Amino acid sequence: MRTRFLLILFVLFACSSQCVPGNLDSVKKNVSVLPNDTATITKLIKLSEVWNNRDQSIAEFLARKAFTLATNLGIDKSLFLARINLGNKLLGRGNYTEASSHLLESLRLAEKMNDPEAVAKACVSLGNFYGYQDQGDAALPYYDRALNYFKSVNNLSRMETVVNNIGNIYYGKTVYDSSFLHKAETYFMEAHDMLRDSKDTVKLIENMNNLGLVFSDEGKSREALRFLKSSEALCKAQGNTYDLIFVTSYIGRAYNELHRYDSAITSLKRSLELAQKMNNVPMTADACINLSLSYSQKKNFESAFEYMRTYQSLHDSLINSDNTRKMADAQSKYENEKKARQIDLLEINGKHQHRIYTYITWSLIAGSILLLLLALLMYNRYSLKNKSHHQLSLQNRIIAQKNKDITDSINYAKKIQEAMLPSIPSIRKAFPISFVLYEPKDIVSGDFYWFTEKKGKIFIAAVDCTGHGVPGAFMSMIGNDMLFDAVADKELSNPGEVLASLNLHVKNSLKQHEGESGSRDGMDICLCVFEKDFSALQYSGANRPLYLQREGEVRIIPPTKASIGGLTDLDQLFQSVRVPLQKGDTLYIFTDGFCDQFGGPDGKKFTTKRLRELLQSLKNEPLETVEQQLKQTFTAWKTASEQVDDVLLIGIRI
Predict the structure, then answer these.
(1) Tens digits of per-residue pLDDT, 518-544?
(2) Are residues 431 and 579 in the same domain?
(3) For the domain that residue 11 is a member of, what is the CATH number?
């Protein structure tokens, strides 16, 4: 039997080294005939570690098999090892809800066994669990508890692991406060010094990855690449596919910072391929968001949009309200069981005391019982309150984590969008008396203004894309690029023809001609093309009018009643209108955000009627004063109401 057992294990290791499709069936078949004993549990756990670097779905299967066997045997030590191993595997695959249950239960078992080393290991895993979700404040107490034990036994290897992980926590805090970046670097370098003479390549890889991220965020991208390339070489030499997912993603980010977008895309696609192969959902999402940013910088907005959608879908699947509830329940269950065990111990001690002090009067016993009942009642109330506190606390951390992920994305997108927008000085050089009132609802905007000069003509537009925030911002990049394509590459100067070209490109790029499979995103736009001498302009609009103010009266030049993209036909025509100009004329082009803002004394929309009346009341004012009055009016109207949309309004006086 022993010979057969060793042979089966040899086959399993051989399969793991091959890592070819269909191995899971082979592993299941071989595992099914293993004996039900503690030695098998140990071997299954080791095998799950081997497979974790190659195929996490097989690693999870082996971990679950070990846990099932340990549960059936009912031996605490084996059950602890199996639970913590399974919890770690689930954590690596983004199954946070189930991972939390196993890791908290492993800590309970370790405390029950009174095994300080097991307690420390469980604390490290729980620290990792909260750290993975950017809940640093919850992770640090677990790490501190583990670090104190490892210091007491002078376990340098374990100390390095925890120090490195604490560095990760402070690195996560840099999203809200960049001053933590130096603290993170300090912990990572301390861990790196501990690893100088170590042969533990896995830890060295993780540490160099962390240093690469920190240096990249500090703007030291070349220094970051030095660490990351060393890490990549180690991963390849060791056949460490799991860590190769991370390092190739980080290298892609560093290349993005250096504006080497082709190199970034190559690295990120490698990370995506490996993450998908290993069924690693968090890193699949990570690769998608970074690929989206890389493609947007290369102005390949179709690819950028698709990767952004994939990222959003994966991100939403990782963290949802049901997970929040289950995680809070698991944490509360652990805390409540821990307190219940303490009460059990108190009751046991009470029975011993009763045997020793038999002379205590029945009245005193009755009083003690009453006090105990009162204490239990107070504890029960405290327990319920404490459980609610834990649930609320964890829910708040999950919300903070969601905000962190979104903020990471939109702050990067903001840099891209700011670089895309024309400079105000360049606009004022062409239009000396002008202003641009631009108030995004979020960090990035679905509204954008566009400006260029071509062959003696001046082009300016106010554009309102579908939505706001990141999706709107990506649509704005598509629109910006396609406007330049129509004017610079196709050399179109008639605004109606420009809008028709823009409509065709948007519908084709977003596959809107393919029925239900395409998106319905689009944009509304007001485009004006001025003669160089300002004797006249040509206007065309897609759902956005042109306001012409002459001698105090505001005249509305209506648009074509159709959007760019969305449900609009491929061959939609947009009317062009020639408008003769006079000295002193004022032109206003704008999106709908100003007029759609709720507020005022009755909480109603501002409306186009109020905007027109406001502009007429300011007919004799300098344009600089008009801009100030518009800003003040919008702020006063909005009062305590939330801004409902992006705001863009451009004024030009001839």
Answers:
(1) 567 889 999 999 999 999 999 999 999
(2) yes
(3) 1.25.40.10
Assess contact for 288 and 272: CB atoms under 8 A: yes
8-state DSSP, 489: I
Structural domain span for residue 55: 1-114
The span from the CA of 502 to the CA of 479, in Å, is 7
Could you tell me if 538 and 639 lie in one domain? yes
Assess whether 358 and 466 both reside in one domain: no
Calpha distance 311→409 (Å, rounded): 11
Tell me: do 524 and 381 sit in the same domain: no
What 3-state DSSP class applies to 450?
strand
What does the alpha-carbon distance between residue 220 and residue 215 come to, in Å, rounded to a whole number?
5
pLDDT tens-digit readout, 246-257: 999 999 989 988
Whether the CB-CB separation of 324 and 395 falls below 8 Å is answered with: yes
461 & 355 share domain: no
What pLDDT digit, counting tens, does each position of 545-589 carry? 999 999 889 999 999 999 998 888 888 999 999 999 999 999 999
Residues 531 and 458: their CA atoms lie apart, in Å, by 7
CA end-to-end span of the chain: 96
In a shared domain, residues 456 and 563: yes
Asked if 251 and 260 count as a contact pair (C-beta separation under 8 A), the reply is: no
- Angle (CA) 202-207-213 rounded to 5° is 130
Q: Is residue 407 part of a domain?
A: no
Q: What's the CA gap between 546 and 563, in Å, rounded?
A: 15
- Alpha-carbon distance 536 to 580, whole Å? 4
What is the distance, to the nearest Å, from the Cα of residue 400 to the centroid of all Cα atoms in its chain? 11
Answer whether residue 174 shows pLDDT above 80: no
Is pLDDT above 50 for 21? Answer: no
- Residue 293: its pLDDT value, please? 82
- The stretches of 93-155 forming alpha helices (DSSP H) are 96-113, 116-132, 136-152
CA atoms within 13 A on the CB side of 100: 21
**501 in a structural domain:** yes
> Do 384 and 452 sit in the same domain of this protein?
no
Q: Specify the pLDDT at position 176.
A: 66
Looking at 60, 81, 114, the residue that finishes a domain is 114
Last residue of a domain, one of 114, 134, 150: 114
**CA 602, 606, 608, 613: dihedral to nearest 10 degrees?**
80
- Would you say residue 73 lies in a domain? yes
Residue 241 CB partners (closer than 8 Å, separation 6+): 53, 54, 235, 274, 277, 278
What is the DSSP code string of 605-620?
A: E-HHHHHHHHHHHTTT
pLDDT tens digit sequence for 596-647: 999 888 888 999 999 999 999 999 999 999 999 999 999 999 887 888 889 9
Q: Is the pLDDT of residue 242 over 80?
A: yes
Please count the other Cβ atoms lying within 10 Å of the Cβ belonging to residue 400. 17
3-state secondary structure of 329: helix
Q: Is residue 365 part of a domain?
A: yes
Specify burial of residue 117 (Cβ count, 10 A radius: 0-12, 13-18, 19+). Answer: middle
Residue 470 dihedral angles phi and psi, to the nearest 5°: -60, -50
SS3 538: strand
- How many domains is the chain partitioned into structurally? 3
Task: Categorize the per-residue pLDDT at 279 as very low, low, confident or very high, splitting at 50, 70 and 90.
Answer: confident
pTM over 0.85: no
